[in-house]
Amino acid sequence: xxxxxxxxxxxxxxxxxxxxxxxxxxxxxxxxxxxxxxxxxxxxxxxxxxxx
Length: 52
Description:
The protein is mainly α and 52 residues long. Helix content is 35%, strand content 0%. The protein contains one helix and no strands. The radius of gyration is 11 Å and the shape is globular. The two termini are 18 Å apart. The mean pLDDT is 85. This is FAD dependent oxidoreductase domain-containing protein. It comes from Streptomyces violascens.
């Protein structure tokens, strides 16, 4: 969840449980996009977690 550092202005939201978590993920990402600040609730799901 979030913006990959290599693609400015692009946000991703991918989840296995998207049906049940879709509404809350949408609200969290919308708040993040509008405020420009990353939220703590999505910190463990950022694209950067795959970086070495």
